[in-house]
């Protein structure tokens, strides 16, 4: 959410940003916010005046009563009553007007960084760089579930009966590999001075609307029937929520956290949930990075975050590339974002395995996450990034480490988490 002062002083900047985001239909919202804000400030000023006058007159009544000037006291009481009626009428309008302004402001996107490429959708994202040599394997790489099935490592048929499409049973070495990746990712980030956290897996509605846009919420979140609780789509949601309504001294910043959680997503609007794959699913697990920091540090820390993901994937012998998200591909709360994509030897193309975002103070304003600095109190900046989401990582890992004889090599970094096995041997 943007600062209301920006609407008052520079609405043209907001509209220029809407143009970059291809959301010019929201011009009217900006004008409406400005109009309602003028009305709100007017009635708030009048309400403050009435409260001040009412308090002064109340004191005057006491003085008059003490002097036994009862007739004059009654006249003043009548004035106080009139003020009370006017104040009550104003207060009935004041809170709904404030909420209307807030709801409109939450639909206006964050100001994007100056260097974000302008484009309508992900087809116009820009490649920044690649790391890792693309090796010709010299044989046809099977579909990822076919690889898993040779290890008796997945059962989609049973999952469909139990839960429906978009769920899975992982088994044996594949299940162990999944857990090994999250454990390795946890230690990878702890070794880089990130504090490890396991957060709540359900959050209240106020946190949901604080961490994401209404559109994202509708497309992603599962609501618990009869409760003010939602299943998280990523641990970022509850990790940022941890700081709701807090004031942190800047000397304790940045707060660098790495968190594990299961994730649940409706995937509304997705291009179909695959019957036989684990690329787009309703349930998965993830190791995340979250930072709360001083505004001056968020640009530098953004670079740090996504480079860690690149380093993580390269330690597992998976080639990657980094993609800068264009303006039209940025979610509304994001100031800047890059995706990390892994190489698929089977498809001979890269696919997304992680996303890194700088949200500046957009989430912090919604959730009242503030910091005390020598320059005064201000809103924090928040950032998040994927370390690893194992179902997708399993695809990249298995395809890149698969050998012609069907075995899968285990990179040295992962061996301590796999009982020091050097390779997985298929059962079928």
Question: How would you explain this protein's 3D organization?
Answer:
- The chain is an alpha+beta fold and 428 residues long.
- It has two domains: 102 residues, Helix Hairpins; 303 residues, BirA Bifunctional Protein, domain 2.
- 43% of the residues lie in helices and 21% in strands.
- It has 13 helices and 18 strands.
- An eight-stranded mixed sheet has the order 1-11-12-13-16-10-9-4.
- Strand 6 and strand 7 form a beta hairpin.
- Helix 3 runs antiparallel to helix 4, helix 5 crosses helix 13 and helix 8 crosses helix 10.
- The longest helix is centred in the N-terminal third of the chain and has 40 residues.
- It is elongated and about 105 Å long.
- The protein starts with a helix and ends with a strand.
- The relative contact order is 0.14.
- The model has no long low-confidence stretch (mean pLDDT 92).
- Its EC number is 6.1.1.11.
- One of its GO terms (biological process) is seryl-tRNA aminoacylation.
* N- and C-termini, Cα separation: 54 Å
**What's the number of domains?**
2
CATH class of the largest domain: Alpha Beta
The H-level CATH homologous superfamily of the largest domain, spelled out, is Bira Bifunctional Protein, Domain 2
Helix content range: 40-55%
Mean pLDDT figure: 92
Q: What would you call the structural class?
A: alpha+beta
The strand count comes to 18
CATH architecture of the largest domain: 2-Layer Sandwich
Radius of gyration: 27 Å
How would you describe the shape?
elongated
CATH topology of the largest domain: BirA Bifunctional Protein, domain 2
Strand order of the largest sheet: 1-11-12-13-16-10-9-4
Major beta-sheet overview: 8 strands, mixed
Strand content: 15-25%
Contiguous helical run count: 13
Low-confidence regions: none
